[in-house]
Amino acid sequence: MAGIPYTASLGLAAFCIALAIGILLGTISAFSKHQWVNNTVAFIATIGVSVPSFLLALLMMILFGVVLHCLPIVGLGTWRHYIMPATALALSPIAMISRLTKTSLTEVMKQDYMVLAKSKGTGQVMVIIRHALKNALVPVVTYAGPLLATLLTGSFVVETLFSVPGIGAEFVTSVSNRDYTMIMALTIFYGAFIIICNIVTDLITALMDPRIRLK
Fold it and tell me: What is the pTM of this model?
């Protein structure tokens, strides 16, 4: 109970960063006519998939904490403490969300109702917001459910690196101390949270897309 608030706040910050930046990059890449924009987004996605979160965390700690001395590297005292661990946790989801958004938007823009909306003289931005994103974000919402559960229940290595007193660090400590009761409790908590997030994701998806029916 003492570690959950720290883990939840850090995970929620990483989730919001991943969702906002991932959708933004995917939308820009889907509608941009400049090749360098697409290449930049593809490069970010590749880095996000290839570089582990703990390696990115170590590199940021060395650069911003040790060399530049501009960001704190221990604990979660102020909003500045959240920048590096939240970014390290969010990079991989940003890559996945941006790719899902781009692929889904590309398919949605080819649909007949999108052609009809544009033929009515509706502006490009309004077409994207009112019609395209609502249907294109269904795969993103499906991915966001398990992602939220993963981030809110802690990243073991990142929390340990930044000395965050969350349940991720508790799990690592319990493994080192062979505290089997704590290991089982955290595993059950994590599994239950995954199930709850998946159920909520299915309900939200059905509300977003009437073509999906829950039986």
Answer: 0.80
Contacts of residues 111-114 at CB distance under 8 Å and 24 or more positions apart, as own/partner, are: 111/135
Position 215 pLDDT exceeds 60: no
What are 90's two structure tokens? 């969010």
pLDDT for the residue numbered 52: 84
Residue identified by tokens 């933004």 is: 24
SS (H, E, C) the chain: CCCHHHHHHHHHHHHHHHHHHHHHHHHHHHHCCCHHHHHHHHHHHHHHHHCCHHHHHHHHHHHHHHHCCCCCCCCCCCHHHHHHHHHHHHHHHHHHHHHHHHHHHHHHCCCHHHHHHHHCCCCHHHHHHHHHHHHHCHHHHHHHHHHHHHHHCCCHHHHHHCCCCCHHHHHHHHHHCCCHHHHHHHHHHHHHHHHHHHHHHHHHHHHHCCCCCCC
Who has greater pLDDT, 132 or 37? 37
Q: What is the pLDDT of residues 51-65, one digit of tens each?
A: 888 888 889 899 888
Buried b (16+ CB within 10 A) or exposed e, 102-126: bebbeebbeeeebeebeeeeeeeee
Residue 127 has pLDDT above 80, yes or no: no
CA 198/CA 196 separation, integer angstroms: 5
pLDDT bin (cut points 50, 70, 90) of residue 122 is: low
Q: Pick 132 or 145 by higher pLDDT.
A: 145
